[in-house]
Write a structure and sequence with these properties.
Elements (H helix, E strand, L loop, with lengths): L8 H9 L8 H14 L4 H5 L2 H7 L5 H5 L3 H8 L8 H21 L2 H6 L7 E2 L13 H12 L7 H10 L3 E2 L6 H12 L5
Parallel strand pairs: 1-2
Helix pairs in contact: 2-7, 2-10, 9-10
Length: 194
């Protein structure tokens, strides 16, 4: 029984192959944080349908390249129908790339900084339905506060919790979902950088 929020199509594919699997690569974490921030006020389905547009406009989420994008680049991206055309969210991606670079230097990697909020191992939730999953937690509030202090934008506690779920820091697959165990197995076999 798959988690109820991903019945079919693109959502089901994302659920079955990505959501909740641990991510340790800084570039992939940056991409997921960007996409979760882009979702603010929208549905995840809306963002997923534009994911390739984001990858194109933000140069494969190459942190260094994105950090150097200019106001002219922002204007160009705002014309692209492949992304959510919200100036603040687009500008925040550039700001966040710059902040990722600083965090990576201060903490050996962006991944190490982020995973510290869950004590370097996933939180395994015991949930039977979507209704039992919180919108934010003490960990997501702490992450949000630290990210904002470091200059990040579009990283409130709810966005951070969704990000933590997506990046495998929290396993919120409902009991009975086959992906719950898949994510646990992915953690056990992962090459962790910390």
């Amino acid at each position: 029984m798959r988690c109820e929020w991903a019945p079919d199509g693109l959502m089901a594919e994302y659920h079955d192959t990505e959501w909740g699997r641990p991510i340790f690569d800084d570039q992939q974490l940056f991409e997921m944080l960007t996409l979760e921030g882009a979702q603010a006020g929208l549905s995840w389905d809306t963002v997923l349908k534009r994911r390739e547009g984001y990858r194109r406009c933000f140069l494969g989420f190459d942190i260094e390249k994105v950090s150097k994008l200019t106001p002219k680049d922002v204007d160009d991206i705002l014309l692209d129908e492949g992304v959510i055309r919200h100036r603040g969210k687009i500008e925040s991606t550039i700001t966040n790339a710059q902040a990722v670079q600083l965090m990576a230097k201060q903490h050996d990697s962006f991944a190490k900084f982020l995973w510290s909020f869950v004590d370097f191992k996933p939180i395994i939730a015991k949930v039977d339905s979507l209704k039992q999953i919180p919108a934010e937690t003490a960990e997501s509030k702490a992450m949000s506060k630290a990210l904002k202090k470091a200059g990040f934008k579009f990283c409130g506690p709810t966005i951070c919790y969704a990000f933590m779920q997506a990046a495998g820091m929290v396993n919120d697959h409902v009991r009975g979902c086959p992906q719950r165990q898949e994510c646990l197995d992915a953690w056990e076999s992962a090459q962790r950088p910390f």
